[in-house]
Amino acid sequence: MTGIFPDGYILGMKTIFQALAEPNRLQIVELLRTGPLGVGEIAERLSMSQPQTSKHLKVLSEAGLLQMEAAANRRIYRLSAGSFQELEAWASSFRRDWEQRMDRLDDYLSRLQDGK
Amino acid sequence: MTGIFPDGYILGMKTIFQALAEPNRLQIVELLRTGPLGVGEIAERLSMSQPQTSKHLKVLSEAGLLQMEAAANRRIYRLSAGSFQELEAWASSFRRDWEQRMDRLDDYLSRLQDGK
DNA sequence: GAATAGGTTTCCTTGACAGGTATATTCCCT
DNA sequence: AGGGAATATACCTGTCAAGGAAACCTATTC
After folding, report:
1. Do A23 and B14 touch (CB under 8 A)?
2. How do the domains of chain A map onto residue ranges?
3. B7-113 has which CATH code?
4. Does A81 touch chain B if contact means CB atoms closer than 8 Å?
5. Of A5, B14, B54, B116, which one is least surrounded by beta carbons within 10 A?
6. Phi/psi class of residue A107: alpha, beta or left (left: φ > 0; alpha: ψ in -120 to 50)?
């Protein structure tokens, strides 16, 4: 524990954020929205070198954002739902926080109005 | 343009991800879930130095994740909804992608079954 | 079974960024 | 005005990760 929050949670998120924080990787993710692709195609479409692409794909895969399927010589990468769901859950939890606060505020205000 | 996607979009997301990719900053965000806090309190609760904390708060603020309110000597930081909503929208857009794909697959399968 | 195509890994260099310490700034109090 | 509290900034240093070039794997084709 480095702090007062469960580390596993923080660490998983950290890995996801780190992976997505690099612009080329973010573009890979956006590109793969359109469907699975091989390494060479990704590299070409994004004007990246092939080793560079390979390394980025590795990082994204290790963060659980991508999954790979070996087809003979080629490796086909596609988006993997898990981490995106985690991300959405995390982000939406803040909205819930705020909504709760709003509810409490509403309660407070209506109690005021009722003269209690 | 570094690629084939609108840069503003990618860049905004990149800034958010970069900000959240640092564990201490992620912990600050989690801590601020519980409510607004001053710099000193944040530093103390997370066992960070004050300058360190200040710098992290700056990064988070510039990413739109925090907003600051000056109260005399003190600066009170609180979570700011905007970037979290952006994040949630982004993450959930992938889910929509997949759901659409499932729909198309369903269509396809039922057409198969109908012998068309 | 060489040559080739598609990918991965290694090594090196360089730039970005986090942490520490010291210094500046702003506000409050007396 | 002077002193102290709360925060921000500057500067320096060390670490880590991204990019490039080359070497390495593995499957395919002739």
Report:
1. yes
2. 7-113
3. 1.10.10.10
4. yes
5. B116
6. alpha
- pLDDT score of B13: 95
Q: How far is B84 from chain A (nearest CA, A)?
A: 6
Q: Strand B37-38 and strand B74-79: pairing?
A: antiparallel
What is the predicted pLDDT for the residue at A2? 45
In the numeric block, the tokens 């109260």 are attached to B71
Alpha carbons B48 and A103: distance in angstroms, whole number: 34
pLDDT tens by residue, A61-72: 999 999 999 999
The answer, yes or no, to whether residue B103 has pLDDT greater than 50, is yes
**Which DSSP state fits B80?**
-
Between B30 and A8, the more confident residue is B30
Which of B87, B95, B101 best tests the A interface by mutation, with the highest count of A CBs <10 A?
Answer: B87
State the nucleotide closest to B24 in CA–C1' terms: C18
pLDDT tens, residue by residue, B1-22:
444 555 566 678 999 999 999 9
* CA B52 to C1' C19, whole Å: 7
pLDDT tens for residues B23-70? Answer: 999 999 999 999 999 999 999 999 999 999 999 999 999 999 999 999
| CA–CA dist A58, B13 (Å, integer) | 21
Q: Do the bridges between strand A37-38 and strand A66-71 make them parallel or antiparallel, or are there none, so unpaired?
A: unpaired
- List all nucleotides in chain D with at least one atom under 7 A from a protein Cβ: 4-10, 17-23, 26-28
B51 CB-to-strand C distance under 7 Å: yes
